[in-house]
Amino acid sequence: MSVKAFKLVSAVEREMLMGDKNCINIECIECCGKNLYIGTNDCFIYHFMLDEKVSTAGKITFAATKQLHKYLGLKKPVSELKAASALTRLLVLCDNTITLVNMINLEPVPTGARIKGAVTFTLNENPVSGDPFCVEVCIISVKRRTIQMFMVFEDRVQIVKEVFTPEQPCAVAVDGYYLCLALTTQYIILNYNTGVSQDLFPYCSDEKRPIVKRIGRQEFLLAGPGGLGMFATVDGISQRAPVHWSENVIGAALCFPYVVALDDEFITVHSMLDQQQKQTLPFKEGHILQDFEGKVIVATNKGVYILVPLPLEKQIQDLLASHRVEEALVLAKGARRNIPKEKFQVMYKRILQQAGFIQFAQLQFLEAKELFR
Where do the domains of the chain lie? Predict the structure, then answer.
């Protein structure tokens, strides 16, 4: 049974990015507040400002205004971008080197600080240093079976730790001292401070693209065997039931209470509350799906789109209108963490009352009595 949880809205159309040049492809994106950055296959970074507009009818659209673009001087694609807003820096991975550039003018920092020998990298969103003017960066090194941790400041970088892994790592997410790693044949949790590691479950990276995503404090989402989206804590246990994805998921994102996944034909939306698939959106040629501060963005090679969530109250009312009382109540309880306490209590009482009348009309008197209570 479907729920309309998200609407797909265009943000950057191909003409804005490439004009009449067909050979330009989007390789990576980063979004920080209203700033949208796009890295392309011809070694350019584009900076747009995203403005959200709401019509009187409540329809949301996005207007992207191009600020500037910058050529990095290489014949290689820009493969990853990450913003460190506290430092007004953008970390740019191109040709196995992470360069620090200014978020506003896209100029490299004058000191020329960079990290060489990176295959891929991620930021630690639960940093251990406690220094607000530094970001912690974890890279998969070009050295075989090696992970490196760096502290990145406004104009310098400093290596903190080098860790060796039992097999070649191909994807990583970080939380505090914990690394969640996709190796060649399995996923593991590794504490880089103590060196203690824990096997999670087997996975063949030769057959499918691994997904490792931090979704909250000490919790990760992984693409498991059999098309399952598996949740794992740093203790190596799962506190939630898995969600059933397709076999060929390319990317995953979290927008509570939903897990959004992208494959080569669809965007699918599953609830973390009851693990059911709630929505399917046709989306061909997508190759990027990421969430940025609650904003879920998808991209093809040529365009960028935003998945706009419908208000949870509207989703709950739609479920009640379809007489799907259990699902409505599960979603309402899950909405507690997104809504201020007083507002939630008023809303929840009203939903219980509506649900009670629906059960009463269906002659389910005992259930109705409990809801009215």
Answer: 6-309, 318-372
